[in-house]
């Protein structure tokens, strides 16, 4: 769909290649013709001295006034990984509200597709997130995008909202999921409310996986244009306590390198690298007894399961709407205190170095630990690595994460499981879930 100036057809639908060679006419007036824009991915603006395109994905809103002005608000790219709201306005040669409304509707239909317009969003800002900068980040980079898209914001009636947006790190989404899970209508609440993250914390894995970015403004745009997508949650039990997990759980080098280096925060992100290297050279092991309900045992089977699942993603209508009086479903495999199901596989691990179970791919921008994970395949991706590897082999294995070759490393045991149990043999240690320390007991 194109906006051209002058007296030729202003809303013709040229290809992007043809448009790149177009020369605009010197006029500020606009006519319109709402045509089928199939095949066109951008709105082409022909202005006085230049022609540029706006991807339909970046268009936030459009409206016309009684005096014949058409105003379009869009997310303008201001850096490689950031956007901000911008406005273009055109004067119609022949104001016609009916035809203008029809054209605007066609534009917004292309801009949003199946995504809901004007989402009603409950925004939760963690004032301590991102070293205390979450409030400033929200008002500077996020709120303007949501406002330009005419989203309705409010400071939780599950019938009144479509989205809960957490301006925080990964801790607040975790709390929201568990808060919804404690309701008497938990199943319905978790089905109806989309929980998203607007990245304002030190750990923003939820946004990396939900939105494909850890930039606040791009995340806001992704939420405005986002489609409701089913997401698996896993139940974590320790003793008789049950919590909901959306991200990961880890025991071993990764957990200890995070939690045991708190006194080295002055090193920044290098403290984690330092913590890992120290434990690699010490060949630190974390003896444990593990039991798993395996769904896909080999890397070839995992790869095939990923391809099959990725080719047919679930939509919001592919799962039935729960009854309004339904809470969380009962635990499928009981708690850590129950007898082990007979179809589980027991795996003693006297030389365990890393135990990492994930529900999403990215744990940080450069850490695609679980490249075969899917949002709703009913599985956790489980990674195990020995702790007594030669130092060079261990370092190559860990650095392979940034190079996206981690999955194929020979020392990486990668399975898809529907459940697991892990009991540590040592009396003290570190376990992490969602970046928060877990109790050191059977999980």
From TrEMBL:
SMART domains: DAGKc. InterPro entries: ATP-NAD_kinase_N, Diacylglycerol_kinase_cat_dom, DUF7493, Lipid_Phosphate_FormReg, NAD/diacylglycerol_kinase_sf. Residues 1-12 have a biased composition (Basic and acidic residues). Residues 116-240 form the DAGKc domain. Residues 1-35 are annotated as: Disordered. Residues 17-30 have a biased composition (Polar residues). Gene3D superfamilies: 2.60.200.40, Probable inorganic polyphosphate/atp-NAD kinase, domain 1. GO terms for cellular component: cytoplasm; membrane. GO terms for molecular function: lipid kinase activity; phosphotransferase activity, alcohol group as acceptor. One of its GO terms (biological process) is sphingosine biosynthetic process. This is DAGKc domain-containing protein. It comes from Phaeosphaeria nodorum (strain SN15 / ATCC MYA-4574 / FGSC 10173).
